[in-house]
């Protein structure tokens, strides 16, 4: 079975000190880098997703949404964490780029399912940010699209640790 690693939204605005920081992200970087190294050494595909919002995205509080401004396309906060070791060859998908459409999942509007199908990828390992939002949505869409999915629980971080949403996400991952 062909498999790939999908690193979800490991961007500056989602890391410590960022506009919408997840919990304990500094300890995440080393773990994710080790996973990237493992996949690269085995000649497997590594994929990165990123929020890539327009400045007036509908999810922002200023537009009536629930989130602070974050990951605006082309800004420093939208860049990947500087400690993240991007391999020489990888695939990247940008999501939530339409002003009026939220997209938590790396599959939402990115064409990722078709790309993975064309490459013969059948299994995904997920890591990244945030457990209860983007990682969970990506997991649900990957399962819906008939991929075998493993969430690397040591390599994900929530926005709200211990929240009901985080607990629901872990139950979902473990019951798959």
Count of distinct structural domains = 1
The rounded Rg comes to 15 Å
Helix-strand topology string: EHEEHEHEH
What is the tally of beta strands?
A: 5
Structural class: alpha/beta
In the sheet with the most strands, the strands line up as: 3-2-1-4-5
Uncertain residue segments: none
Helical residues, percent:
25-40%
User: Between the first and last Cα atoms, what is the distance in angstroms?
Assistant: 18 Å
CATH architecture: 3-Layer(aba) Sandwich
CATH topology: Rossmann fold
Full CATH superfamily name: Isochorismatase-like
| Shape type | globular
Provide mean pLDDT, rounded: 97
CATH class: Alpha Beta
Number of helices: 4
Largest sheet: 5 strands, parallel
Give an overview in words:
- With 176 residues, the chain is α/β, with parallel strands linked by helices.
- It contains four helices and five strands, in the order βαββαβαβα.
- The relative contact order is 0.21.
């Amino acid at each position: 079975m062909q498999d790939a690693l999908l690193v979800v939204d490991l961007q500056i605005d989602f890391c410590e000190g960022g506009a919408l920081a997840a919990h304990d992200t500094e300890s995440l970087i080393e773990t994710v880098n080790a996973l990237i190294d493992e996949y690269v050494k085995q000649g497997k595909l590594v994929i990165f997703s990123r929020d890539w919002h327009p400045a007036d995205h509908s999810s922002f509080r200023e537009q009536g949404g629930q989130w602070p401004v974050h990951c605006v396309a082309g800004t420093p906060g939208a860049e990947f964490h500087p400690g993240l070791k991007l391999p020489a060859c990888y695939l990247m998908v940008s999501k939530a780029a339409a002003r009026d459409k939220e997209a938590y999942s790396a599959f939402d509007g990115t064409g990722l399912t078709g790309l993975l199908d064309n490459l013969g990828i059948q299994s995904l390992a997920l890591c990244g940010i945030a457990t209860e939002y983007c990682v969970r949505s990506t997991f649900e869409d990957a399962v819906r699209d008939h991929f075998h999915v493993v969430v690397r629980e040591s390599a994900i971080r929530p926005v709200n640790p211990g929240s009901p949403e985080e607990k629901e996400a872990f139950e979902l991952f473990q019951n798959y």
